[in-house]
Every structure is written in structure tokens, then in C-alpha cells.
Amino acid sequence: MGLWKRITNLVSKPEPPKPEKGPLDLQTGDICEVSLVTYEVVGTARNRARNAVMLTLQDGTNIMYLHVELQEKLRYSLYQPIDGGLENPNEVPTHIEMDGTDYYMDEQYHGSVLANGRTPVLPGVQNGEQHVWQYQSDDRKLLRIEWQGGRFTLYEGESVLNGDVRVIRAS
């Protein structure tokens, strides 16, 4: 190494460290751990207006969905898809009884989402308006209904503690 190169290296500022990725920053191909189970992120659906993302996670053949939202603090909900549907997005009820559990509407919103990878969104409808209804039962079970592109998707799940979600490898 030449003298000039050595002097330049001594005087130049070192590159700042890259900030670590958090769960809101995960992309397709990243690896995360949720409640001691390791998953690969195979799809994302981002709602930037709400600072939220729905991650499609795969562990072998098992598919789960992790909803991450930053409000006052990060909030996590882990869902699995369930069969069912509704007729009309204008007639979604505020109370749903399913398998002996009563779910009450907690929140309803809509916004634009950007989808990437494998998501429940219909092929070819990767970006667009999405309507979401979130429910909670008395025993803290969660129900989520999404409507996008003329199609309903239903999920059942539970809240996850912040310490139970960990980014293992991010690209």
C-alpha cells in the first residue's frame, strides 16, 4: 500500500454502521423467529399510511402471517388462514360468532397496500386498495378479515409479545 493511501485511510472517516433491520423492514428472503419458530419471509403486504406490514411466513409447508404495526410501540399478531367468506364488503358485521367464540369488531380501516412475493392478494393485484376489519374475543383471540380485489381472506390468531419476535437474517 502506498504512503498516500495510508495517509488517506488514517484521515478518512470510517463508514457508519448500517442500522439493523427491524420487523417492519423485513423483505422476501429474510429470516425471522416468532415464538421460537424460525420462518422465511416469502411475501409482504405493506400499508405505509398505517406504518404496518403483513408478512407471509413459511416454515417448511406451514404458512403463517405476522402483522407488524408501529403505533406507540411495535405490535405483533400471528395469524393462520381460515376458510370462510362474506358476500359483500359493505355488510361486514360488528359481531361474529365462530366455533363457539364471540368476536367483536375492534378496528376497521382501509388503505393502499404494496404487495411483494407470495401474499393472499390475487395474482396481478399486487398494489391497491385494501379494507381490513379486526376483531377480538373476550379470551383475547383475534380475527382479521381483509377484502381486496373483490376477494375476502380470513385469518384467526393471537397477539405476540415483543420479545417473541426476532430478526435472524435480513438482506
Lay out the secondary structure.
Layout: H1 3-11, E1 31-34, E2 37-47, E3 52-59, E4 62-70, E5 74-82, E6 95-98, E7 101-117, E8 127-137, E9 141-148, E10 151-160, E11 165-169
Antiparallel strand pairs: 1-2, 1-11, 2-3, 2-7, 3-4, 4-5, 5-10, 6-7, 7-8, 8-9, 9-10
Any overview of this molecule?
An eight-stranded antiparallel beta barrel has the order 2-3-4-5-10-9-8-7. The model has no long low-confidence stretch (mean pLDDT 89). The protein is mainly beta. Strand 2 and strand 3 form a beta hairpin. 5% of the residues lie in helices and 56% in strands. The protein has one helix and eleven strands.
- The string of secondary-structure elements, in order, is HEEEEEEEEEEE
Query: What shape does the CA trace take?
Result: elongated
The unreliable regions are none
Q: Whole-number average pLDDT?
A: 89
Strand content: over 45%
Helix content: under 10%
SS element count, helices: 1
Structural class: mainly beta
Radius of gyration from the CA trace? Answer: 20 Å
